[in-house]
Amino acid sequence: MTRAVFLDRDGVIVEDIGYHYKIEDFKFVKNAIKGLKLLKNLNLFMVTNQSGIGRGYYTLEDFEKFNIHLLKELKKRGIKIVKTYYCQHKPEDNCECRKPKTKLLKVAEKEFMVDLKKSFVIGDRKKDIELGKNAGCRTILVLSGKGTEEKKNSEADFIGKDLLEAAKWVISNE
Question: Cβ distance 159 to 143 under 8 Å?
Fold first, then answer.
């Protein structure tokens, strides 16, 4: 069994501008690359809710183009994301893949022999922390993105200002 880090995308790795799918709007969150480089020896996965697809704001193809661009930019910097898991449904669809439900982590657990109890979830929203708790992972709330708004009610194991602080905590708690 392997350890993993499950990362939310918007507000953690890339700037969260709401329904983010245009490559021309692509911008890394400050210190995201430094944090990801610290984590490069762990299996890194992205887990993201993309209800904009289900709402018709953009297409699955738009999402995939953006994701391919993001993965190429990370690869140029020596960072590999093992796989991107996403939910394209609207919240009211009540699907099993939308965070904070654990289906996507359970799929990764089976597909890549991930030990969820030894893994981490890093996100900037309450639903990211709930996802991690629901799956038995350790959790980190980052204050980039929406994290500052969610801080006071967070039950995260650690709260860091950005992905770099989160990565340092992961490394010290492996």
Answer: yes
83, β-bridge pairs: 45
Q: Please tell me the distance from the alpha carbon of residue 18 to that of residue 154, in angstroms, as a whole number.
A: 22
- 3-state SS of 7-73 is ECCECCCECCCCCCCCHHHCCECCCHHHHHHHCCCCEEEEEEECHHHHCCCCCHHHHHHHHHHHHHH
Domains of the chain: 4-172 (3.40.50.1000)
Q: Is 157 in the active site?
A: no
Best mean pLDDT range from 3-12, 17-26, 149-158? 3-12
Q: Rounded to two decimals, what is the model's pTM? A: 0.95
Dist. CA 45–CA 48, nearest whole Å: 10
At 127, list the tokens.
């639903």
Task: Choose, from 8, 16, 128, 162, the residue flagged as catalytic.
Answer: 8
Residue of 10, 16, 124, 162 marked catalytic? 10
Assigned token pair, 83 = 């796989």
Cβ neighbours of residue 64 closer than 8 Å, sequence gap 6 or more = none
| Better pLDDT: 147 or 166 | 166
